[in-house]
Design goal:
It is a single chain. Helix 1 runs antiparallel to helix 5, helix 1 packs parallel to helix 6 and helix 3 packs parallel to helix 5. The protein has a single domain, classed as dinb family like domain (Four Helix Bundle (Hemerythrin (Met), subunit A), Up-down Bundle). Strand 1 and strand 2 form a beta hairpin. The model has no long low-confidence stretch (mean pLDDT 93). The longest helix is centred in the C-terminal third of the chain and has 28 residues. 57% of the residues lie in helices and 2% in strands. The chain has six helices and two strands, in the order H-H-H-H-H-E-E-H. It comes from Brachybacterium aquaticum.
Length: 164
Amino acid sequence: MSAPDPAPLGAASTLPLLAAFIDQHRELLAACLDDLDEEEARRRLVPSRTTLLGLVKHATFVERVWFEEARTGTSRVELGLPAEASDSFELDDEDTVASTREAFLSACAASRAVTEGLVGDEVWTGNRRGPLPVQWILLHVLREHAQHCGHADILREQVLAARP
């Protein structure tokens, strides 16, 4: 998986650049499910619960934790999210390629909407760690998505290589 890097911006604000890099990784994560059947998307190739479908489901959790819970203080239970990040990889019978991708894209759209127009010195107080600057949150989300794009790249390569 690859995508072109966002264009460099002036030094005025790093937020648009961070948003562009996050969007790039969002696109790559959504694309990791392209042209896979349900079995391929769910295939476990490592001892952990990490699957391609599980990675995208977890990325949805990441979006919602950082752009809903951290911003509003709404609990994970109220948001319908697992209490622990590790549980967000767990797949249910109703999780399909289509439904998981749609949930992820919807969460990403909501995240974009709440961060549009921010200047970078805002602090969100709803996360369990306590108050966090929005710039820290954006960097954390970028790190999470970049890490999981790498995982997805390797898993997808293995899935495709196993095809007849």
